[in-house]
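User: Here's a protein and a ligand (fe (ii) ion). What would the complex look like?
Assistant: Let me lay out the input and then the predicted complex.
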Amino acid sequence: MKFLFIGDVFAKSGRKVLADRLDKLNSIYRWDVCIANAENAAGGKGINYNVADEIFNSGIDAITLGNHTWSRKEIFNFIDSSNKIVRPSNYPKGVPGKGRLIIEKNGIKIGIINLLGRVYMEPNAECPFLTADRDISILKQQCKIIFVDFHAEATSEKIALAQYLDGRVSAVVGTHTHVQTADEKVLEKGTAFITDVGMTGPEEGILGVDKAVILKKFLTGLPSYFEPAEGRTCLNAVVIDIDENTGRARSIQRIYESYN
Ligand SMILES: [Fe+2]
Ligand SMILES: [Fe+2]
């Protein structure tokens, strides 16, 4: 079973890339399931109902989130009722939404876990390692395939989690930095891994944001209002082939597409 996982979809231009490009890409890569990180999908921060709907209509089966989960207050109106949106599982107890979920495709149940890193990230997240242990033991009862989006800053924390989960989940994909890394591999016990998938949307800004805005912030320290960058766009993703009988990954392939 083939998966396409798409790195942080950023603002309108990221959504347009999904709408315009996925059909053609699927004729090449032929995935069965498509998951996208969409924590930046609405104007570059957070997500709202219409934006989520637009993304699902582009052929996405499930959405993962990250540190921008709560950036738009509309999220509280629909996150509890969605069976296709997963937010970080290691948020403190009592927050809305689901940190793990099961989707079904072609009669196969797929477990999805979203986790937030703690190194240079939000201090109130619980331990992603222990949260993964808990979620895997629950999902394992129903799913051979478990897919983890680890939304984290530090490369060391991402590699450590992937090694910790090797052989227990099908894939650990890193998100959040918006910069694709060239270290995709299938680990020793069959878990596909990449430190960061990258981002989908504006290619010419700074991590998706207009470069003048970010440069002013670095040069003056003054607060700034993020504007998505214009110009060229890109799609960053990985295709992962998973044996549905064992849950082990067969291969992982990195995709970086650039568009005028
Ligand atoms: Fe992001
Ligand atoms: Fe993030």
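Summary: The longest strand covers residues 249-259.
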